[in-house]
Design brief:
iron, metal-binding, single chain, 408 residues, oxidoreductase, monooxygenase, 19 helices, binds protoporphyrin IX containing FE, 3-stranded antiparallel sheet, heme, alpha+beta, Cytochrome p450, 12 strands
Length: 408
């Protein structure tokens, strides 16, 4: 497949549903290829790892609407010392020790949601795993972290999902109406919340960040709000997709799944392989203001935009033998799913904790869970995940279409 054709496939609904053949076709032309003037695609593991760590490559926001302006004002789209300053302030809340302290609460949440899933599926009806587990779990964890009341979780979920549109590839000048509306509402919400927490601080991330802000003025109120919204944007659907994509793979591999259900000690290795195989975030981007040479790749010309396909690097056969196969016993997986370098995911430890707890809990409590018909994917390039993933939680004899008893 020629480069242009592979790029067109990736931008089509079929390519969004299954981007892996088009990634392979692009990679066959080199780990970084030129798609057009000032426009490149990176698909090789080593090249992506090098690009993300290269200080000559910068993140860049396109602040042309309320949603993209908020993201542009957050650490996700800031560079150099400005980025380091904000990242340092926020990193404390996501340090391994802080995250480990959430283990008990996350386990309790996973057990509660798994048991509710079992209750809903107990009558033999199909249940949507995304609605009943994959989305509720991370939104509850983030809301607890931010100190947002449980009653507002559904409101948050809807807006966070709408905001993700702003991280999808789009034509210059195109509008992100739903994302902009969600951003405006979230900004107003967090502005009020910051005001009330300032008067009555709690034991939560927002109160801690306000204290930092008020102590040395190192974080402006605008930055504070932009980063709070960005946490929701960066941490919610990604984690839901890790849980949904991972469950999809496990349902298709009942042998390895039952091993994990019986031995939660395998969870670390399984989660790395699930992250690799179906990266919840497939794409990020970088900007090269100057010419950049990466080993074995096309030279990147100055003033170029690079689409960095993390999901493609994760399936690079030079790095992972038989890359399309699920093999939780691979040596040294180190997927690119959380990025690399200065912008390496701030919430990686938290997302890993949630998944490492959730899968063994689900598989141990619902060992008979199986797919209930066709799952539907969200039509997205950047975020890879299911809109719904119907499951049966129990093996019951169900009538076939012919009315004969059967197990489907
Ligand atoms: C499976 C779940 C997750 C995945 C796959 C994921 C993926 C990523 C990736 C690839 C980046 C780097 C983007 C780039 O370099 O351009 C990133 C950055 C970030 N992530 Fe995550 N993320 C996940 C969960 C979370 C969670 C739970 C949080 C927080 C609650 C979070 C907060 C952030 C933040 C704040 C950044 C920006 C860091 C910076 O620019 O310095 N993420 N994430």
């Amino acid at each position: 497949m020629l480069i242009g054709e592979a790029a067109r496939v990736l931008a089509s609904p079929a390519g969004r549903e299954d981007p892996y053949p088009a990634y392979a076709a692009l990679r066959a032309h080199g780990p970084v290829v030129r798609l057009g003037p000032g426009f490149y695609a990176a698909t090789g593991y080593d090249a992506i790892s090098a690009l993300l760590r290269d200080p000559r490559l910068r993140v860049r926001g396109w602040p042309d609407g309320p949603a993209s302006r908020l993201v542009a004002d957050s650490l996700m789209k800031s560079n150099g010392t400005g980025h380091t300053r904000v990242r340092r302030l926020m990193a404390a809340a996501f340090a391994p020790r802080q995250v480990e302290a959430l283990r008990e609460a996350v386990t309790a949440q996973a057990v509660r949601l798994a048991d509710y899933l079992a209750h809903l599926g107990g009558s033999g009806e199909a249940v949507d795993f995304m609605d009943e587990f994959a989305y509720p779990m991370p939104i509850r964890v983030i809301c607890a972290l931010l100190g947002v009341p449980a009653a507002e979780q559904q409101w948050f979920r809807e807006r966070a999902q709408e905001m993700t549109e702003v991280l999808e590839p789009r034509q210059p000048g195109s509008h992100t109406i739903a994302a902009d509306r969600a951003a405006t509402e979230l900004e107003a919400y967090f502005t009020d919340l910051v005001r009330s927490r300032r008067n009555a601080p709690g034991d939560d991330l927002i109160s801690a960040l306000i204290a930092t802000h008020d102590a040395d003025g190192d974080l402006s109120t605008r930055e504070l709000i932009a980063n709070l919204v960005t946490l929701l944007l960066a941490g919610f659907e990604t984690t839901a997709n890790l849980l949904g994509n991972g469950m999809g793979v496990l349902l298709d591999h009942p042998g390895p799944a039952s091993r994990l259900g019986a031995d939660p000690g395998l969870a670390d290795a399984y989660v790395e392989e699930l992250l690799r195989l179906e990266s919840p975030l497939q794409l990020t981007s970088r900007w090269a203001a100057e010419e950049v040479d990466i080993d074995g790749a096309d030279r990147i010309e100055a003033n170029s935009h690079i689409m960095v396909f993390l999901g493609a690097g994760n399936r690079d056969p030079d790095r992972f033998p038989d890359p399309d196969r699920f093999d939780p016993f691979r040596e040294s997986v180190q997927p690119l799913s959380f990025g690399a370098g200065a912008h390496y995911c701030l919430g990686a430890a938290l997302a890993r904790l949630e998944a490492r707890i959730a899968f063994p809990v689900l598989l141990a409590r619902l060992p008979a869970m199986e797919r209930a018909g066709e799952a539907v994917r969200r039509d997205r390039t950047t975020f890879r995940g299911y809109a719904n993933l119907p499951v049966y939680t129990e093996k019951l004899d169900r009538p076939t279409l012919l009315g004969l008893p059967g197990t489907r």
